[in-house]
Amino acid sequence: MVNLGLFSEIKPLVSVNVRFRIPYYTQWGQSLVVCGSEPVLGSGNVKKGLLLTPFHEGDALIWGGSLAVPAGFQSDYNYYVVDDERNVLRWEAGNKRKLLLPDGVENGKVVELHDLWQNGSDSLPSKSAFKNVIFRTSSRLAIEKPLGTIKNKLDQEDLVIVQFKICCPNIAEGISVYVIGSSTELGKWKVNDGLKLNYVGESIWEGDCVVPKGAFPLKYKYCKYGKNGNFSLEYGSNRELLVDISASGPNYTVLSDGMMREMPWRGAGVAIPMFSVRSEDDVGVGEFLDLKLVVDWAVDSGFHLLQLLPINDTSVHKMWWDSYPYSSLSVFALHPLYLRLQALSKNMPDDINQEIQTAMKELDGKHVDYEATMTTKLSIAKKLFDLEKDSILNSTSFKKFLSENEEWLKPYAAFCFLRDFFETSDHSQWGTFSQFSKNKLEKLVSKDSFHYDIISFHYYIQYHLHLQLSEAAEYAKEKGVVLKGDLPIGVDRNSVDTWVNPNLFRMNTSTGAPPDYFDKNGQNWGFPTYNWEEMSKDNYAWWRARLSQMANYFTAYRIDHILGFFRIWELPEHATTGLVGKFRPSIPLSQEELEKEGIWDFDRLCKPYILQDFLQEKFGPSWIVLASHFMNEYQKNRYEFKEDCNTEKKIVAKLKSLIDKSLLLESEDKLRRGLFDLLQNVVLIRDPEDATSFYPRFNLQDTSSFKDLDEHSKNIFRRLYYDYYFNRQETLWRQNAMKTLPALLNSSDMLACGEDLGLIPSCVHPVMQELGLIGLRIQRMPSESDLEFGIPSQYGYMTVCAPSCHDCSTLRAWWEEDEDRRRSFFKTMVGSDSLPPKQCVPEIVYFVLRQHVESPSMWAIFPLQDLLALKEAYTARPAIEETINDPTNPKHYWRFRVHVTMESLLKDRQLTTVIKELVRGSARSYPGQEEEANLVVVSEKEQIKNEEKEKEKIRVTNQDPKITSIAVL
Length: 969
Hints:
single chain, eight-stranded mixed sheet, eight-stranded parallel sheet, 29 helices, disordered C terminus
């Protein structure tokens, strides 16, 4: 028998009861779990976390649970929604919560945590765009006490210590945060007698007070308070704290009240491709150091953001095709095109300086001459490198850069050397170097190699690009301007990334987009699709490294084609158009499923359906000649493509050969379109990796193959088509996005925006909202199927709104090229039955811009071309010449340059004044506003009245009888 007296000298452990409590509405079969870093909370394993129990409190559904912990217990924790098997369905956004027990808490005491679910938008203050740029003054506040510390002591049973915690990221100098409320401890609603909170870091303010149990329920609000006695009360109804005042009730109540309820922060920005900027110092193209001028102009115009297109090296072909900024040679390397030659040396030789001056004049053209500019810059940079390489390569700064970036920089330099040596970026043509290995790489970049000068020249270029972009990025931060980058969805098939990591890509495929607003035949971008299964094995390390690299320069970024992280439109590598593809991942139609529906003739449905009538209709009298070259007649009046032309790429090659030999006289474009139509005339696409799986062709009802089916089969395919594209994939696509997107978002603190245009699955917007991703709204491409134009006043807060973007015509070009839609816009949006002006006059531009700045969207971002159209003097150039990209043309030359220098725009006070007044009048934030801000003493009734006025400003009405008139500048 055990002698318990042996343990009589051991002091009993102090045990504290911690209760979790959070309001959250779930669906049937869902529960909430608390999971934290300590074993009692699962040690990070949600399946072992604390399962909460639901109960109703009035109309609210509350989830609660408790556990016993020792004094001094600390843990990170978060809430998760799980199914019956504890599989995670969703989780909170933002930083981990901190559980810190009060010092000196006594045995048996109860600490109750009142939490609110952290939505994606709640994590925005921690993003670098806000923390380090827009609210940078607030983030530099001195920490007044450690997080979670409770100052008061509990000495009576009828008292409760309440700790208040609120997030308030936008605080001007000299402003404090208070809690005022219904109890004496909270000042009886008088700010001077309220509870002053302490700053604890990360935009969080905390304070605690001792409240008698008789004071509950406690009503309260947070407010900002200035040294001069002025204050600003948070809007909305009073907050209320209910606690169990019985003996079993809490002794300590910790309130995590989320965000202070203020008018949502809203800002504006300007978008311009790096290559389009013009300055007095550039050589043929916009350069990184020109961004300082653009930042100055943005500040003068009231803009908090400057958005760029991708700036990575795209030198795949070493010709003008490389002007396409979304086809990167390396996702880490910067583009040499944007190098400022004059900044390469402090001791520039006179002859080289003269060469730069000559190049500036010769390349100062209407458009970017991509090839000439690249050749000139690299030639001059090489001369400077030869003169100064020893001092640069041996400098401490360069060695640090090389050490921090060698993982991507060495393969990049080696790739560039091999590309030039073999005269192709197609690494499959590099013989022994086709297969990448670290041993081969180290030999290639060895300092002892005869070509080390070539290798180190690429280091040198990247080093200076890094210095110049870093200088511009730091300048933007200090001026309060967010620098927003662009994350392309793909990489070039012949790139450093596919050479080094071929296992991460499906090289026999191509990415694109199904038919949409831009192109009825879909888009084929030519990039290989990602092997997500392989990428997941190291927790998406390639993506995480890519985002970390971007974060060196940018504080926000645009995720190009965010739909690709849910599913990508995958095409066979031999396709040239984007029509005959399938979504990856997706649940296909199985052969068994189709056979149960009475569908069995798969050859008829999957092979191009070509009748003699079709050939005669498409090609007229010359059909016989064309058929002899491209077709075999395998049944009477039924044709199939010959082996040497049974893909789109084969058709293109054979057509070119026949026309070059003058064997075909018709237009090559017309013949290609006709042959492609025949090749694409299928109802089903058979999976090349699984012959028993099938995918319905996009818009299959438009094909003559479908139209020739019997009515029963047509009805079956209509139903299966709708199911495939709009129903059966939603859960799969959500799961896919929730695996991939968090890895991106958690790899940096940049503010993330997703380009969510196109065919939007219903799962996309809920996931974006959950993850705190900001969507995109283009007025001419509304996401609502029943609208011709988006209504900016109805956009959600978590959006970026814009009248146009780089993938469509400018506002002025659209207005002048599309008479029908121009009239429709004038009638429905302006509210006028009169004929609209044929030219997009400044009054029209002002009206459209005002619609956008007054929208509820977090950001209103305008292409620079649309802003310049506010002034008639800047509209002399044909509007069509301001187009950045034509999505229907895969070989579009990206070469638009603004026709006025940034120095000239900075001197144009008329334009910047009109733009800034437009921004200010919309109640959007602008740089320098913090210094101008003053708090006003108001009663709660006056505060509510002012809130309604501010909300009314945001609720822009589109019922104006006519366009607001402004003076033509």
